[in-house]
Design goal:
This protein is an all-alpha fold and 234 residues long. Helices cover 83% and strands 0% of the residues. It has helices spanning 2-5, 8-29, 36-51, 55-61, 63-67, 69-74, 77-82, 84-89, 91-115, 120-126, 133-143, 147-171, 177-197, 201-233.
Amino acid sequence: MNNIIDSQLFWVTLTIGLFLLGKYMSAKTKFILFNPVLFSVTVLIILLKLSGIEYSSYKSNTDIISFFLAPSVIALALPLYKELEEIKKNHMAIFISLTAGSLAGLISVSGISLLLGADTLTVISLLPKSVTSAIAIEISTKIGGEPSLTAGFVVITGIIGAGGGLFFLRLINEHSHKGGGLAIGCAAHALGTAAIAEKGETYAAYGGLALCVTGIITSLLAPVFAYLIELFFS
């Protein structure tokens, strides 16, 4: 029994199975907590906690899933290419909106965390939370943050965006696929984009564009914010 539980096949099958179950329940109930990413991650955390299995053991058995993250992000280039002419026409508006979104994210996360009494290391580690993990970890390392802490916040941000991004957009009466894609890609990186990509290629195209451009903008702005935080709050 222990050999089965400790096998790659078991954990990969369980992870994919939980994701598909969440997807099925979300389609049936339209309930936000049944978002496939949120549902599968929550159930897996509970199972690991109850069974006493270390996360490192789970991770080593599911590395093959992580391997496909990069190709899946690259695959977003196809819908992006289909929207290329439209993007060229509106490139300045897109750039300004993504710059504003990146600034809003940096200002809000640093401001709220400082008001709540977080130390400077935590605040700096939070700065790249809205960009995809590979970029966020590099940014965190360069600006003096804690990469492992950053990685955790990146995942949490992505799960929230994937689970509630479209719901929030509906609340504020935003129904544009282009605007929605840009907003979620900017705020919730690859996880959010993957979730909305299921709703249509326009969402996927603009979400993919947003997560790439936001990564570049954040890599330029985060060091400035980190410097100011250390200068005035350390």
